[in-house]
Amino acid sequence: MPGAVDGEGGRLPPTGQARSPAARTGGDRGEDGESEDATVGTLRHRVDFTGYVLPPGSWLWIRPGQVHQWQNPDQAEAILIFFQEDFVAPETAELAGLGTGTAPMPLYSPDPSEAPVLAAAAEQLAGEFSQSGRHPLPVHIALLHRLLDVVLLRLAHLRQHGQAGESAPEPFLRFRDAVERGFSRTHRIDDYARELGYSTRTLTRATQAAAGLSAKDYLDQRLALEAKRLLAHGTEPASTIAAHLGFTSATHFGKFFQRHTGRTPLAFRASQRASPPA
Q1: Distance between CA atoms of 43 and 37, rounded to whole angstroms?
Q2: What pTM was computed for the model?
Q3: What does the pLDDT average to over 182-206?
Q4: DSSP string, 106-155
Q5: For 178-213, b where at least 16 C-beta lie within 10 A, e where not — what string?
Q6: Residue 123: CA count within 13 A, CB half-sphere
Q7: DSSP count for the chain of H helices, then E strands
């Protein structure tokens, strides 16, 4: 079933509205999908350590595994749509790119012709959830399926028309997906090239064309992001995180992390425990 995130990061029953959610200084790491539609005021939210400003009518799509954090929850209102991927029809999941491990920029600003349609779809979804007794249960669930499909497909349409996304070279798309599956197993581009049947030069050229950096830099950025997520969200020591991410030692992991973030793992974790700026 789809669901909503309440202000303390817990789960409400399936899809609904949340108003003025309370801030969490440590951040949340969702295992399911979440979309936010800012309706009143300007909402500030951090996703994977990047801040976003949501004026009324804009949307924020938070993917499973991403770390997110409220910034000014008492100054804005929004509709939250929280759902598990297996609630979404397979054809909708494919068209909306729900299986893509790495997400594009999550902020969507619909044009004036699309914004009211998306807002109406979100309101209908929230309304159907809040009046579950109005229809027989099978009809109610079917309506939730269809209404969620409308929201996700319209958001995906905005992404496809606003970003290059899936028009990237096929070697990069395959490499991107392989990195999602294997970044904690191997940090060698040669291993990915061998698995995918490409030369390392082909992967590097395709990644440079699609993402603006080399294949190795792309892999390192993904590793650094996962390390930041684990440090910000969890309590495991750096040595445990190092082993989880495939580093041979905590020392090697610490040098890698400092080289890519400018901080030691412990200093980064301490910074995330401090209250976020409003």
Answers
A1: 10
A2: 0.75
A3: 97
A4: -EE---TTTHHHHHHHHHHHHHHHHTGGGS-HHHHHHHHHHHHHHHHHHH
A5: bbeeebeebbebeebbeebebebebbbbbbbebbee
A6: 9
A7: 10, 9
